[in-house]
Design a protein that fits this description.
The chain is α+β, with helices and mostly antiparallel strands. Helices cover about 60% and strands about 10% of the residues.
Length: about 70
C-alpha cells in the first residue's frame, strides 16, 4: 500500500511539473469532440478525448501487468 501511494505521488508530481506542456495539447478540442453553442446554451462532450485517454490508460496498464 505504501508503494502504491508513493508511486501515485510521484506520478502527480511529474504531471504537475509537465503541466505547462500538457495544457498546450489539444485535448478537448480534437476532431470528434462534440461542442454545441446556442444563445443561452453551451454543450461540450469530449467523445474522442475520452476515447483517446481510455486507450492510453489501457495500454499503460496492459504494459505494466505484462
Amino acid at each position: 500500500m505504501q508503494q502504491l501511494l508513493i508511486t501515485l505521488g510521484i506520478i502527480l508530481l511529474l504531471l504537475g511539473i509537465a503541466w505547462p506542456w500538457i495544457s498546450q495539447l489539444p485535448l478537448g478540442r480534437l476532431p470528434g469532440d462534440i461542442h454545441i453553442e446556442r444563445e443561452n446554451f453551451s454543450f461540450h462532450f469530449p467523445l474522442m478525448t475520452g476515447l483517446l485517454i481510455s486507450i492510453v490508460i489501457s495500454l499503460i496498464l496492459w504494459w505494466t501487468r505484462k
